[in-house]
Amino acid sequence: MKLVTTHRLPEDAVRAISPDIEILQVAGEEALLRAAPDADAIIGGFGGSSGAQFERLVRAAKRVRWIHTSSAGVDPLFCPDFVSRDIVLTCAKGHAVGTLLAEHAFALVLALTRGIAVCARMKTWGRNSRAGRGVSELRGKTLGIVGFGGVGLALARRARAFDMDVVAVRRTPSDDAPEGVAVWGTDRLNDLLACSDAVVLTVPLTQETKGMFDRPAFERMKPTAILVNVGRGEVVDIEALIDALRNNRIAGAGLDVFEQEPLPDDSPLWDMENVVITPHIAGNSPDRAGRNLETVLENLRRFVQGRPLIGVVDKTAGY
Question: What is the pLDDT of residues 193-204, one digit of tens each?
């Protein structure tokens, strides 16, 4: 079996899984394409690449059966060749990034509800300023989570620790959610928007979620509610969001992802006191690589043994 990787893998750990695995580490697209034709498995960070780059890889990899990407977002990778072929794609969703995105989302919630966003811009001491008057507590409030996978579950656990009620929507409702968490189908998104004090987006980008948060969505939210997005930027209609913030239809926004990145210097969002912007860093951590390696090695073991892999991307669902 031939394994081609753009990441450094511990050879002793790979050999412990099977001494018959041939490992070839490459750097750069040209070297990857040269190594791909007889690869059985390919490991790399492909989520941030363009669809054209990934399609070139899939076309070159004539016999590949498994591809792993260290990225959590996979929407650029759904090229026709990949979708039509019997290739299993795994990614870093869940174990590798779930806690990171949940922590970052909750940090944005706290920055907005505790007045930190406003205080960070102030240069004077003012306990009775807008920052001091605008703070609120989370206890007894409702957190709405749009997209209840690994990130959503990790976020719900943190919200419950703050004595918040939690409602979530996902494609399939659930009766076995943690205590204090209601998981509804996406047909109840409007109910979630109406009752939530903070709405956090963790959904992947699909045809169904693109532009999901438009003007009607913001109009259904409480005027005292905040929006946090650590999922995909294209889920939010940015002009509708700016309009909602300017006209006080929502109270604030914490944003880590945008349809256009970097966010343009002339975006009105930069100057809004009730907006916290981070530059797509929710998934950053020095510990992430270690967790991704754990997933890769576990999947390599399963691949060799012919068992189902973990973190598999559903081609039908799009994530």
Answer: 999 999 999 999
Question: Catalytic: which of 280, 288, 301, 302?
Answer: 280
Q: Is residue 261 annotated as part of the catalytic site, yes or no?
A: yes
Residues written for the chain? 319
Q: Has 7 been annotated as catalytic?
A: no
Residue 42 CB neighbours (<10 A) = 27
149 and 271 assigned to the same domain? yes
Nearest to 146, CA basis, from 89, 107, 185: 185
For 10, 14, 45, 70, the CA distances from 5, given in Å and listed in that order, are: 12, 12, 9, 11
* 45 and 118 belong to one structural domain: no
Q: In what order do the strands lie in the sheet with 275-277?
A: 181-185, 165-170, 142-146, 198-201, 226-229, 252-255, 275-277
Residue 266 sits in a domain whose CATH number is 3.40.50.720
Per the structure, how many domains does the chain have? Answer: 2
Q: Are 43 and 35 in contact (CB under 8 A)?
A: no
Q: Which two tokens stand for residue 92?
A: 């870093």
Range of the domain at 106: 98-277
Tell me: do 134 and 268 sit in the same domain. Answer: yes
User: How do residues 128-146 score in pLDDT, each as one tens digit?
Assistant: 676 677 799 999 999 999 9
Distance CA 164, CA 142 (A): 6
47 plus 104 within the same structural domain: no
Does the active-site annotation cover 8? Answer: no
